[in-house]
Amino acid sequence: MGRDFLIVAVAIGLTVASAGVAAPSNCKLVRIEEWPVRQERGHLIVDGAINGQKIGIILDTGAMKSLILRSAAARLGLERRWLKGYRAFGVGGETDLETAYVEEFKIGQAVRKGWRVVVAGEQDFGGDAAFLLGEDFFQKTDVEFDLAHNAVRLFQPKDCEGHSLAYWATDVVGEVEIDKIDGSRPWIGLTVRINGQPVKAVFDSGAGASLLDKRVAERLGVTPETSGVVGGGRTVGMGKKSVDVWIGRFQSFAIGNETIKDTTIKFADFLAQVPGDVPLEDRGPPMILGNDFLRAHRVLVAHSQRKFYFTHVGGPVFNAALPQWTPDAAQCAKGGQPTDAKIAACTRAIKSGQLSSENLGITYNNRGNAWVNYGEYDKAIADYDEAIRLNPQRALTYGNRGNAWYRNGDNDRAIADYDEAIRLNPLGAPDYFRRGLTQFWLGRFDASLLDLTESLRLNPNQSYAMIWRYLAQSRSGKPELAKSEFSAKLGPLDKAKWPTPIIDFLLGKSDPDALLKAAEHPDAESRRGQVCEAEFYVGEWHLLNLRLKEASDLLSRAEKTCPKTFIEYEAAVAELRRMTK
Question: What is the SS3 string spanning 182-232?
Fold first, then answer.
C-alpha cells in the first residue's frame, strides 16, 4: 500500500492494497483498486456489502455525498434518525435526510467499520442498488472509467505534474480542465460548447443519460415546440417527483478537441426542481454529462491535476436518437379525458413500434388503469402482466395489479402483489394504504391497523388514511384509544375542505344531518362523491355502535350510489358481504 494512499484511506475511511502502473517520464500511477463494474438500468454498479448483506453500490460522481438509499435502509433493517437542519435536492425535487449507523461497509477489498451514513432518496432504483458512492469519496483519488472492459480503477499519481495521465492512449487524447472543487461547488465541473456556446456541465457517472436544462436549451433555440423535438418520457432522481424529458436536435456539441455535429440531446426542466430560495447559480451546472458519454469514451478524472482526460472508443456519444415517447403515449399517460379516448391512444402507442421497452411497459400500465375505470378487470390484469414483464422492478405496476385483483374478487393475489410492491419500494405509502384497506375488507383489522399506521408514518398528510386507521383501530376493539389517537394525529384542518366534515363527525363534533348537509355541493359530480362518502361513513358509525339495521340501509345506499372507483364503494360491498354471513 502506498503511503500517500494511507493518508487518503484515513481521510475516507478505507483500507486497500495497491499495485503499480507505468506512465510516461518519471510519472507513475499507483493503482489503488480495480473494480469489476456491471451496468444495470443506466447505473454503474459494483458489488459490496453492508453489515454482511450483499448490496449493489452505484458509482455516482454526481452525488456530493455518499449515502444509503432510503428504500435500501428499510430493506436492510437499519435504524434511522432524522438529520435536522440539512436539505438535499436532486432531479425530482427535495429529499428528506436521515442517518443510519453501519457496522461494516465493503466495496472490493476496501472495508470501513463504524460509519454513520446519510440516508436519502425518495425512489427505489431497482435490483440490489442500495448505496451511492459519491464525489466525497472519488475526489481523494484519480478515477478511470473503462466501460469497454467493465472496469473502474482508482489511482494515486506520483510525480505526474505536467504529464498526461491517459496512459492507455496511443493517439490523440481529449483534455478538459476541471473547475475548482470546494464546499460551494462540490462536483466535477467542466465547460462544454453546444451550438458554439459555452455551457457548464457536471460529470455525473450516476446519471443514465446526459441531460441539458430546459432553459439553456431554449436559449440555444430548442424548445418542446420546436419542429422535430419529441417527448422522451419522464425521468426521476432523488426527489419524489418525475420530470418531463424531451429529445432535441442541436447543431453541435464539443468537449475538448472532440466535436459532434448534428446530434440529439435530452433536455428537461431539472434545475427548476430545486426550490426558488436557492439562487440559480447555486443550483448546479445546467448540463449533466452522464453514462452515455462514458459508454462511448474511456475517461480518467485526474483530481490531482484538475484535468479530465478522455478518448473515444466508438459508438454514438448520446443515445437519444430514437424516439422513446410519442404523442399517443403522452395522451395515454394524461388524466382528465374520456376513458375510451385514453384506451384508443394507448393502443395506438403500443402498436406504433416507436416506444422504448421501458416506456412500452409504462404504456401497458396506463392502459391497464383505463381498463380498471371501465370495470374490465381481466383486460387490466393482462396489461399489467405485460407491463411487469417489460419492467419487472416497477413497484407501481404491482400495486395497480393488486387493485385489479381485489376488484376482480381475488384478495389473496391482491395482497401478494401489494407485498411485492412494498418489497420493491418499502417507502411506498400508497401500497401500505391499499394493503391495509384490503385487510380491512377481509376483516383482518389488526393487520389493517399495522399497514395504515405505516402508511401514515411514511406520509402523514393523508386524511383518508387517518380515517381508515381510526376505523381499523375501533374495529380492533379499542374505540376510545382510536378516537384519542385520531384526534392527536390531526394537524390544522381547513373546515371548508372535504373530508374535514367526515373527521369532525367521527370525532363526535357533529351529527349525521350536519355531515349530510356539508356534503352538498353545487357541482353535480362533486356532490355525488361527497354524499356517497357521507352516507358510507354514517353507516360505519352505526356499525361501530351496533345499530345494524341503520348501518345496512346506509351501506346498501352507498353500494348503489358510490362511483365504482371509490374506496367507499369497495368497502360497502365488503361490509354488506360480511354482515350477511
Answer: ECCECCCEEEEEECCEEEEEEECCCCCCCEEEHHHHHHCCCCCCCCCCEEE
Best CA proximity match to 95, nearest among 234, 201, 236, 213: 236
CA angle (256 as vertex; 253, 257 as ends), nearest 5: 90
Dihedrals φ, ψ of 395, to 5°?
A: -60, -40
**Beta carbons within 8 Å of 63's beta carbon, 6+ residues apart:** 132, 133, 134, 135, 206
d(CA 554, CA 543): 10
Cβ–Cβ under 8 Å, residues 106 and 251: no
- Please identify which residue in the block is written with the cell numbers 353545487: 522
Q: Does the pTM of the predicted model rise above 0.85?
A: no
The answer to whether the beta carbons of residues 37 and 147 sit under 8 Å apart is: yes
93 contacts: CB under 8 Å, gap ≥ 6: 239, 240, 241, 273, 274
Q: What is the pLDDT of residues 201-250, one digit of tens each?
A: 999 999 988 999 999 999 999 998 888 887 777 776 665 667 788 889 99
N- to C-terminal Cα separation, the chain: 74
pLDDT digits (tens, 9 = 90+) for 67-118: 999 888 988 999 988 877 666 666 656 677 889 999 999 998 889 999 999 9
